[in-house]
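Annotated sample (chain length 167).
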Amino acid sequence: MKYYFRDAYFWAFILIISVTIYFSIGTYFRWFNLGFMIGPYRFNHWLSWIGFLFFAIHVPSFVSLKRHYKNRIRTLMGIHVLGNLLGFMLMSIHFAHQIGRSAQFYPDLGTGVALYLIMPTLVTTGFFLRFNFLIKYRKSWRFLHTSLVVSLFLIIFIHILHGIQIL
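Output written by the structure step:
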């Protein structure tokens, strides 16, 4: 049996992805009511902003910290993997809520679709990197993973500007 089946992070990854799928489907079909207002915004928007804030703070910090604290890489990687998966879950719930809206209230999905196509690809490449799947392509996965992070931040910035009606 492969070593990753004994790795707690592997099972945490599987659990978080399973919960993400469940909550995304439930949100899409409105099994869960996440459209209620908190202040001026809907709850599902708050979830996506929390997920984005984690990405915005953690990803640049992780890049710096992993270079300076090489002896703590396992802990840093655990926070990186699990934290980003939780951020992905929050953003998935938001996306599912948006695409599950009725036709008369359907949103303009332009940058949102681009963002959501990038995020599962980031999760997949991160999974391959973390658990050494298809190891002979490791350099390609790392390049793709890093490039997608840069793209994600650029498109999120445009998405936010569009959302606050600057663009």
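Annotation: The chain has a mean pLDDT of 87.
Annotation: The longest strand covers residues 37-38.
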